[in-house]
Amino acid sequence: MMLDWTRLILPFIPVISSLIGARGIYHFFQLESYQFPGFFRALQRNRISAWLPGLLITSGCLVLFYGYDAISAANMAASIKLVLLVGLLPMAVLLGWLVRRIFSASESKKKFAYTGRVKRLFVVSFLVMGVLSLLLAQNPIAILPALWPLVLPIVVALSGLLAWPIEKLISECYFRDARRKLLADPRLIRIGITGSYGKTSVKHIIGTILSEKYPTLITPASFNTPMGVSRAIREKLTPSYQVFVGEMGARHVGDIKELCRLVKPTIGILTSVGPQHLDTFKSVERVAKTKYELIEALPQDGHAYFCDDHGICRNLYEQTHKPKTLISLQKGDADVWCENVSVSASGSAFDLHIKGKGSIRCQTKLLGEHNILNILTAAAVASDLNLSLRQIANGVSRLASIKSRLELIASPGSFTIINDAFNSNPVGAKAALNVLAQFPARRIIITPGMVELGTEEADYNRAFGRSIAEAADIAIIVGKKRVQPIIEGLREAGFPEENLHRVDSLADSTVLLRGLVRKEDTVLYENDLPDQYQEM
């Protein structure tokens, strides 16, 4: 009888420890939106955090197994042996908790969330790990159930794979419910926005301007995946809204097409096409193809809006045969443009021109010339939706900084902060440096550089370093191996070595900044890497 209890309880010691101790591995899976290619890349970048927890759990389980075996070998009552055996369970919990504490990032930017999907994943993991342990327990070699945590990341991936059909079914139910709710009112204006950069800013700007005339719902924060947009619709859309604005993000070909299947937009806005998420797209051409899925999804009587970049976006505009509008910072052949631009550290002013409708002077607190292009894009849509020039200008004057996107934080008697910490890209980084250059010296930048740029990442970061040398007086570079190209670019540009500082973490940069900064300085925080990109 004792042998049966041993075979039943001992195999679940590593199961319990692993479910608790592997939270960091599950966190990587969640941060990568449960996409297996991204998850495996995260494991590759974080080898220690990925594989060492399983090694520690196996080591701890072996100690527990051998300790129990040594004690139970003594001549003692079966009931006492059973008590000792059951006592291993809380020790398994303690082992898992200790491993979790060791590998839990104390400064996670995006905390691990126990969502419904995560809870279901844990249930599937428990079943997978339990079956695996019980099968190994049938082998005469008693320690085998303690060895499988050595491949814990693979076991987590297997659990995710087995849970995928369940999640697909659940997500499709949510998806269809959101689409039904969105399409229930045929009068609702549905707008889709995509682009390599600028889409979140344009979303907020268009939401503010359109609210001068229409009750407008925009997807919150960076909700730009099918499940994120579905959630926004199901939770926030009410019959009182007349306009829905959906941000559409993409990391793979077909992602925008799936979002269009949900939103069925009648208006499509393409803000930009550039080198972003090249680790998944592999080429800018594939980025362009994916972004253009929005325009292809528009009905024949829909309307497409393009920001003129004199490059890919302009080419996509030329090949479009649906109703379309071109927006540019210069007149040329644009339908919407600006003149008499004044850009400063306190905001911008410009004359908004809309072909056939006239012009009006606009002022905004938003920083940077690129934000003027974002405003022009929103103004083009607003004008076609019958807002007057005065209503548009009023909306522009009400625009507030968007969190972590060139967000100006000025405190009387203290230094000025420009928070541009949202994930950066080469074009966004250049725009941020242009803004920084408009402030009086001294100008300080704190940055870990750019990621998700595939094989060209080092080259882009090296160019970023050269650009920093032109705009900043002091550079604090955050990171270890990944930031070396930035430092090389700074040195190539002749940046003073005494003004170049490299630190391991954002916390270290804060300590260093305290000893450097003066109250008249301006500090730009450019990019803040996601948790899965932090270097150990």
Give me the side-by-side strand order of the main sheet. 2-3-1-4-5-6
Radius of gyration (CA) equals 28 Å
CATH fold group of the largest domain: UDP-N-acetylmuramoyl-L-alanine:D-glutamate ligase
Query: Between the first and last Cα atoms, what is the distance in angstroms?
Result: 48 Å
- The total count of strands amounts to 15
Query: For the report, how would you describe the main beta sheet?
Result: 6 strands, parallel
Task: Give me the secondary-structure topology.
Elements: H1 2-9, H2 12-21, H3 23-31, H4 36-45, H5 47-72, H6 78-103, H7 116-137, H8 152-183, E1 189-194, H9 199-210, E2 216-218, H10 226-236, E3 243-247, H11 255-263, E4 267-270, H12 278-281, H13 284-291, H14 293-297, E5 303-307, H15 312-319, E6 324-327, E7 336-344, E8 347-354, E9 358-364, H16 369-384, H17 389-397, E10 407-410, E11 416-420, H18 426-437, E12 443-447, H19 457-471, E13 474-478, H20 484-492, E14 500-503, H21 506-516, E15 522-526
Parallel strand pairs: 1-3, 1-4, 2-3, 4-5, 5-6, 11-15, 12-13, 12-15, 13-14
Antiparallel strand pairs: 7-8, 8-9, 10-11
Summary, kept brief:
Helix content is 51%, strand content 15%. The chain is of the alpha/beta class and 536 residues long.
Describe this structure in words.
The structure is a single chain. The protein has 536 residues and is an alpha/beta fold. The protein folds into 3 domains: 2-167; 185-397, 3-Layer(aba) Sandwich (UDP-N-acetylmuramoyl-L-alanine:D-glutamate ligase), CATH 3.40.1190.10; 407-533, Alpha-Beta Complex (Protein-Tyrosine Phosphatase, Chain A). 51% of the residues lie in helices and 15% in strands. The protein contains 21 helices and 15 strands. The protein has helices at residues 2-9, 12-21, 23-31, 36-45, 47-72, 78-103, 116-137, 152-183, 199-210, 226-236, 255-263, 278-281, 284-291, 293-297, 312-319, 369-384, 389-397, 426-437, 457-471, 484-492, 506-516, and strands spanning 189-194, 216-218, 243-247, 267-270, 303-307, 324-327, 336-344, 347-354, 358-364, 407-410, 416-420, 443-447, 474-478, 500-503, 522-526. The strands form 3 sheets. A 6-stranded parallel β-sheet has the order 2-3-1-4-5-6, sandwiched between helices. A 6-stranded mixed β-sheet has the order 10-11-15-12-13-14, with helices on both faces. Strand 8 (347-354) and strand 9 form a beta hairpin. Helix 2 (12-21) runs antiparallel to helix 7 and helix 5 (47-72) runs antiparallel to helix 6 (78-103). It starts with a helix and ends in a 10-residue tail after the last strand. The model has no long low-confidence stretch (mean pLDDT 90).
